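USER: Please consider what follows.
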Amino acid sequence: MSAPSGSAPQVRTPNRKIVDRRRYEALIDVLQRRATARRFSAAHYVTDEDYQLILQAARLAPSGANTQPWQFIVITSARAKQAIADALVSEQVQRGQGSAGIDYRALETAPGMMVVVADFRMSWAFPGLMTGTELDQRFHANAERVILQSVASATMAAHLAAASLGFQSWWVSVLGQEDAQASLHRLLGVPADLTITDIMAFGHAAGPVAKRWKKDVADIASWDQFDMANFRSVAQIDAWMADVRRGIHAKKLK
């Protein structure tokens, strides 16, 4: 008997035997333990081995057409960390956010830091017309999105590896921050053909880390076709965001 469209099937016959769920459970444990920290303790440090283990995880991430369009710059200099924080704070002030936004100055407290760099030229690995026409530009724009997704997968792998080592991390996107991008390119000697996408700061949190509320599986999954019960109107999104700002979702964890 088939299930009603949009709902989970009533019966599914396993087509393979799950030999050992311990690997899955270990993965779920890492995902549940992963947490964002925006200020770090000075009592702990990051070793060269920690960096190597995290980079090993990042390099194994999947990528479109196996382009592996990423580079990671390990930042160990306190002066460089300060300059990176300066660049983001300056951009924040220019945008009029000031002290009301995120405290990027706290990046200086991170014992571990890596800057993520993308090579969007690797989009040439994907099929295209190479004619310069509007259709060709659409092909190219789509390929660039695949490159960005690929870099994000490597960045996520790095964050999960850090979590598995007992660290908390901070994923800072610098996409769209043109002045900060220019400053970081000069500071780190990044060629103009490459794009800095993110900064990964990690270490042990300086204080308690708030646990984030997550949606249930039923809220994110549809079967065979989109479940309209999971669709939100603009008004519902606005209401949801208002609840986030009032901390209503966080209270569900208590």
Summary: The chain has a mean pLDDT of 88. Residues 24-209 form a domain with the NADH Oxidase fold (CATH 3.40.109.10). The chain is about 40% helix and 10% strand.
